[in-house]
Amino acid sequence: MAGLIFLIPIALGMGLVGLVAFLWAARSGQFDDPDGAANRILVDEDRPLPDNGEQGLEK
Amino acid sequence: MSLLDTNMVAGCPSGLAPSEAPSLSDPSAFVRRVDGQNRLSLTVRGAKCGACINRIESAVKTLPGMESARLNLSTGDLEVGWRGSLKAPIIVAAVAELGYGVSPRDQDQGASDEQREERSLLIALGVAGFAMANIMLLSVSIWAGVGEMGETTRTMLHGISGVIALPAIIFSGRVFFVSAWNVLKRGHANMDVPISLALVIAFCVSVSETLRGGADAYFDASVMLLFFLLIGRFLDARVRRKAHASARDLAAMAHRTVMRLGPNGKASSVRASEISPGDQILLAPGERAVVDIQIDRGISDIDESLVTGESLARRAIPGMHLLAGTVNLSQPLTGTALAAASDSLLADIARMLEAGEQRRSTYRRIADRAVSLYVPFVHTSALLAFIGWLLAGMGVNEALLIGVSTLIITCPCALALAAPVTQVVAAGRLFRSGTFLKSGDALERIAQCDYIIFDKTGTLTLGTPKLSGQISPEALQAAAELARASRHPLSRAIVEAAGAGPVASDAREFAGLGLEGIVHGAPARLGSAEWVSVDSGQSDRSSLWFSQAGKTPVHFQFQDHVLNDVATTIGRLQKAGYGVEIVSGDRSETVESVAQTLKVDHWSAAASPRDKVNRLEELQAQGHKVLMVGDGLNDAGALALAHASLAPGGAMDVSQSASDAIYSGGLAALPRLISVAKQARSVMIENFAFAAAYNVIAVPIAITGHATPLVAAVAMSASSILVSLNALRLNAMRETL
């Protein structure tokens, strides 16, 4: 029974962390463009290597 | 798909939306300065997939001085920010060149209010979800510990539940409380009144039970109720916001800019709303008139296809009146504004739209009708249970508990989800096939229609002329070199047939006559019969002649082609029992030939916007429910008044905002839309029937006092899940039409 004393606060605390994260995400506009967010992962950001590209990927 | 491939296509590479011809206007009047940065909000039409984001953002970001460019795919808003001397028209041109429709946008108060409302519903939903999950954690231990758990532990767990439930109900329940209070103040009642009542009573009874050390507290049930109801409310708000986002396009139209000539002859870009009658206006080639004007100087060709449905370009001379929505094709025109933007044809049509919206809002949704039957039933049964048990000699506390459990268990969770979930699933399915629904109840109205009226130009036919007949490749290539210098629809048709190639040197266009230039070293002309000095016996605006020194003139003929799948689609609709009619603003020969090809018996030509509306009212008076399909400005009034309406993706923005749904990828979308609408309707009715059946079982259980919090929780969530699963069936259904 004594376990409840700390188990319930831990459960509530974890839920609260999730809630705070959700509130932050909602307020910072991350749910404003669900279609765009779903599509953005498909956007290919590769660009042609610049001319002095040897220093980069070769080593 | 590589970047290179997608760059070859105009518009959305997924083919979900048609590309749009660039319409030029100077957005400089909409640039805002914030912290030394220039900002501009644009509305982009036709962007539907990830590749669009990439193309648009990277095209804009490569411009000098550009600091940020972000496209919101859900709403089509493009926000750009830059420093330096970059001019706004260059940004717009960069997007328009890719084949997207783009227009500047005001920082819109209404839209951001709606977005804020949706966001606050989402947050309320999150809070309710958090509270529900945590209270459920405690409730499950109470239910599992029946018979073993001591009263002290149980009361403590109830107490913690209450402490979580109180802020959640106050915070998330606000949505219902505020709305219920506002309605009650005016002496009415709506759905939110019983919901608020159920929440408050359930909470208060649970508090008193907890204080008494009783076994049954309804904290979990009341928060669960809140959570499910908020899901329905949130989905509804999202569907509604999408609908309003498209209505904003109409406002965006009035937000176009106009080149106004100052007293010193200097042109400056101003907002259309600042134009007053008598202002001097410059209409550049390719630009669309935003106000009605009278031409003072300049001769040009004009395209009125979106205003009147006339498929051929017309010659414009000084003294003529141009209606708003007309596109200037070849030469700059100077004119006097006849009316302010708010008095022009566009604004008239906007008023017609408003009248239509009002009439349409009298439509009662299935959900509303179900609720109005449901709410009195729920309340009477809860009240009767309470009074009945009191009379049977039970204590006030126990009787109240039974009344509350009846109220909670019958509360309209499944009912609140039945319609929105179905609408969201159906809209999602249509979206994937390229049809965009603008409101939830559009589906219900489309399912009811039994008569379909089509506009011709742009709906059944391509709307732009196509080369017909046999032309030798050499003559075609030679004519195309001249045609590439022109915006005239017939020239564009030649270019389309010939493909990319060189432009004739020294090509000049003479409005209403034709083009002249040097092709392969010899002077050549392309234009009307009189322009190339051929005696054809009649003046025919639907053909062109090409002549070059020393060669016989070549005759080019054009036809507005009926779109590919239209004949089969109309056949399918007629077979399914729909009345089909064509009402067009075009000349009667063209309409008749189209009607004959499509085997449509009822047609009328040369119809003005007013005629279209009259025909519609006539049919509605006969008891038909009419589905209107059209794309032009001249259809907008009819689109708004029809029982339900549809516009193709290439339609004028006014028509798009007047209609219930926008389709792309040809008319084959229409049978699909109708069959999905009918399926959605039957799924919705199944859902309501299920909610009713659920109550037939749940109410006796509750009234007899067998509804414990556990039973209430299971019944409520099971019914909500079943209703949602039933709606998901829509995705797997086959087309029936």
TrEMBL record, chain A:
<dbReference type="Pfam" id="PF03597">
    <property type="entry name" value="FixS"/>
</dbReference>
<keyword id="KW-0812">Transmembrane</keyword>
<protein>
    <submittedName>
        <fullName>Cbb3-type cytochrome oxidase maturation protein</fullName>
    </submittedName>
</protein>
<keyword id="KW-1133">Transmembrane helix</keyword>
<feature type="transmembrane region" description="Helical">
    <location>
        <begin position="6"/>
        <end position="26"/>
    </location>
</feature>
<dbReference type="InterPro" id="IPR004714">
    <property type="entry name" value="Cyt_oxidase_maturation_cbb3"/>
</dbReference>
<keyword id="KW-0472">Membrane</keyword>
